[in-house]
Structure prediction request, 231 residues.
Amino acid sequence: MNEITNTDNVPALPGNGHDVDLEQVKRVLEAALLSTPEPLTVQQLKRLFAGEVDADNIRKVLDELRGEWTGRSIELTTVASGWRFRVKPGYQEFIDRISGDKAPRYSRAVLETLAIIAYRQPVTRGDIEDIRGVAVSPPTLNALMERGWVEVVGHRETPGRPALFATTKSFLDDLNLTSLEELPPLEELQAALEPASPGLVAFAADPEPPQQPSDDEPQSPESNEREAHAG
Prediction:
């Protein structure tokens, strides 16, 4: 390794791109990822080295860094938006004891709506109502959009052009996933929501999308959907 130490005893950054000190690259990546709560992409991390380190070397070093942190209470993971460090789930409960932040508690209506959007996307409000068998109140969808888990991705070319909803990268990031293909089987999510509503049970049994969503048909109201979330 060709390390040059400055007066602060910090090795210099890689120089000419041909004789790269990958160990120093690793330490810079580690510092960058530990200093931000948001995931960083490989392209963002490349900017740390002013183009002197290519994407393949960045990925190689990230994989090595992930291995170094194996077995610790913090791990380096990949999510939909990039790479990040996070506290392992088994230790999060201890961190929560000194943190002022509390995870919001969502109603069954919100969670079931999220499940339908995640596994059937893109869907309209009418699709969700057909599956659940009850009306979807505005606060239910608003809670998911305010959380950053759901967004409007377009409009269906049918009368009224209803909005199409889909999940976001933030949704995958919060679940520590890189893609929708990594979502757990719907049965696992259904078990977490027991006792599941008849509409969600039918959805799990029949994964095919509805052929003719009824966006304009009146639905029976559900009182508990007026409280989208609390806390």
Remarks:
- DSSP finds ten helices and six strands in the chain.
- The CA atoms of residues 26 and 64 lie 8 Å apart.
- The first strand starts at residue 74 and ends at 79.
- Confidence is low (pLDDT under 50) at residues 1-12, 208-231.
